């Protein structure tokens, strides 16, 4: 087939391929330059405080113009009516509601969707829409350049490496950092609706990592790994850990709570909180000042040796420069710590955690009282991982449990997390062979 273009290329000519390649290369370079200029202009607008995209749900778009009518940039402003719905969505998600149930709640209320439907279809909220909305960092007051899923997908297709940049927008914040982190914690188990047992979705299989299935048969509640059982059925595995009693698992978690939140451990938590309440300066300041004294003495000693040497010593000079840099760094840390203060919000959280008895509050969670979805969400924060790892004997099971001590204090006090920390315990559970069942639980390994 003969190809003739408007700019003079004719495939009947012998040199048409060279001309076509040159024009194509020039066009590709022009496209790359245009993309660079557009990106540079968008970054410039963000650095000047403007926004570059359509306003998401909860905001409205305001165009700013100069005195002569030319467009300067676009800003977002909070739409209070939609912002109230966004805050309620975050509260529901933090309370354990699934994306599907939140979408159903929005559809029942007749809340308009962020985007209109295509063609004649009616727009409605989907669970994927709710997931994308809650994952947007703008609700925590941050706009991430090249942070959207569309940008990541384009980069994967073209083989480009993204360089995300974060721009603070505190005036657009709708939720606090703690709420946004809890609702978007990818290390936490996904929350789904319809679960009817307290431990459903919380237990995992140590060998394969799958979620254990809670089974209720003939009045006996047990949990097992359905994935391992299916693999054994088709001879893909030699065996699996079998069934464990959910009653024994609850006894084990109660024992873990008593071990981690013992009176001595709670007093240690309170000591750390009081240090934090005082700015954390007493202990840290003493440590930094001692290190600064040692660094100062080292500098003085090296300076004295340099003065006494008859000629230059490059190694000694390098050691003196390194010691001087370390002394300056410690001086900066001492000044920074001396001026640090605890925010009012953090002070309120610390005071609430100092006044609460965490064990009394957390133990009630395992009794299954209250809303099941909310209780499961709280337990997922308190126990990031509950894995069945071994069955050494018929009536014995070994679990590996991660418990977030800082989150436990925050949950008990209904406040934000102040002290971070996760303890990992390996716990053995034994039951008697005869009825009534007697349980024996002991911690066989503990590490932080």
Please render the helix and strand layout as text.
Layout lengths: L15 H32 L11 E7 L5 E8 L1 H15 L4 H11 L17 H8 L7 E4 L3 H10 L6 E4 L8 H7 L19 E3 L7 E5 L2 E5 L1 H8 L10 E2 H15 L2 H15 L3 H28 L5 H26 L4 H12 L2 H8 L6 H11 L2 E6 L5 E9 H9 L8 E10 L7 E9 L1
Parallel strand pairs: 5-9
Antiparallel strand pairs: 1-2, 3-4, 6-7, 7-8, 9-10, 10-11, 11-12
Helix pairs in contact: 2-6, 3-4, 9-12, 10-11, 12-15, 13-15
- Total number of strands: 12
Strand order of the largest sheet: 5-9-10-11-12
Mean pLDDT: 85
Low-confidence stretches: none
Strand content: 15-25%
Q: Tell me the major beta sheet.
A: 5 strands, mixed
Number of helices: 15
**Could you give the distance between the termini?**
73 Å
Short overview:
The chain is α+β, with helices and mostly antiparallel strands. It is built from 15 helices and twelve strands.
Polypeptide structure, described:
- It is a single chain.
- With 448 residues, this protein is of the alpha+beta class.
- It has 15 helices and twelve strands.
- It has helices at residues 16-47, 80-94, 99-109, 127-134, 149-158, 177-183, 226-233, 246-260, 263-277, 281-308, 314-339, 344-355, 358-365, 372-382, 405-413; strands spanning 59-65, 71-78, 142-145, 165-168, 203-205, 213-217, 220-224, 244-245, 385-390, 396-404, 422-431, 439-447.
- The strands form four sheets. The protein has a five-stranded mixed sheet.
- Helix 9 packs antiparallel against helix 12 (344-355) and helix 13 packs across helix 15 (405-413).
- The longest helix has 32 residues, at 16-47.
